[in-house]
Amino acid sequence: MLIDSTTSPGCSAPRARASINDVAVQAGVSAQTVSRVANGMNNVRPATRERVLAAMQSLNYRPNSAARNLKAGRFRSIGFVTFNLATFGNERTLSAVAEASEAAGYTTTLLPVADPTQLDVAGAFGRLEEQAVDGIILVMSAEVGSLDEISMTVGLPLVIVDSDAHLPYTVVDTDQEQGARLALQHLFELGHRDIVHVSGPESSYSARRRAEAYRHAMIEHELAVLPVLTGDWSAASGLELGRQMLAGDRVPTAVFAANDQMALGVMHAIHDHGLRVPEDISVIGFDDVDGAAEFWPALTTVHQNLDEVGRQAATLLLALIDGEPDEKQKILVQTRLVVRDSTGEVRAD
């Protein structure tokens, strides 16, 4: 179950839930007997059990699992903190975390952070602690400074997604460098040598790693590293950067975009300029968003296994909650190349 802690109040107050005493009175038994039935204990006579179950159903009574979990020192809930839920990666990761958590009997409490600052992240952690979660997954898609003070304040198990692998925490992420190298190797094999990289924002860890991989790969192949064009992940920024690129003196034969939305904007700019994809300029993206196969032309891209990232993060956090030692693992989930119609061999002049 996913609970959005940002939901505003204002809905009508829920009807009061039936208590264990209400069930006991209707069934003509003690509250202790109701508790035994609710907890599946077998030291209750069959006829009495049936009477209690009938009373529960009649009153729509649900056993208070929160109270039982509290006695066991558990709240059966994890917190999920993210800076920007609107991005494809964060949304897909949240979905996977929620599914894995629910399968383990945990709810997931979502808490978006408007500004990626240490103060706001610390505030989010404090709110989750007040809401009684057992651990936290932080999608740290932008730099917020040191987390030492945050973790010391909260004292809850913590797993970080999409972050700097040098942080002293358990980290799960896509192997950004491996994915970028897959994209560039595909372009190299098609004969491309003039390749422009359209990057995400400089504050983004994943954008920086993909841009670094671009520079390293070009240098390794003894090719000119063209100026990196920096966008904001949106198709609109890809369109604007594509127009700037085509207005320059040197038009590349290929573009490696750091996500699929910016790749879509770049292709729009190329079409507006009277050129063709991939005959004149090849374009490759990163993410493999839903609908990438329906772009015009169908987009060649790097597929992120974000479902696996979310599952791994949830599994590691639940293990920490269960008392396993935090070995501060660094898990990188591999990507794969999806070749479609937007890339082709360099045109012979």
Task: Write the SSE topology.
Elements: E1 2-4, H1 20-27, H2 31-38, H3 46-59, H4 65-71, E2 77-82, H5 88-103, E3 107-112, H6 118-130, E4 135-139, H7 148-154, E5 158-161, E6 170-174, H8 176-189, E7 195-199, H9 205-220, E8 229-230, H10 235-247, E9 254-257, H11 260-272, E10 282-287, E11 300-303, H12 306-321, E12 330-333, E13 336-338
Parallel strand pairs: 1-3, 2-3, 2-4, 4-5, 5-6, 6-12, 7-8, 7-9, 9-10, 10-11
Antiparallel strand pairs: 11-13
Helix pairs in contact: 1-2, 1-3, 5-12, 6-7, 8-9, 10-11
Overall radius of gyration? 26 Å
Q: Report the sheet with the most strands, covering strand number, pairing sense and barrel closure.
A: 7 strands, parallel
Strand order in space, largest sheet: 1-3-2-4-5-6-12
| Strand runs, count | 13
CATH architecture descriptor text of the largest domain: 3-Layer(aba) Sandwich
The dominant shape is: elongated
Specify the number of helices.
12
The portion of residues forming beta strands comes to 15-25%
Under CATH at level 1, the class of the largest domain stands as Alpha Beta
In a nutshell, what does this entry contain?
With 349 residues, the chain is an alpha/beta fold.
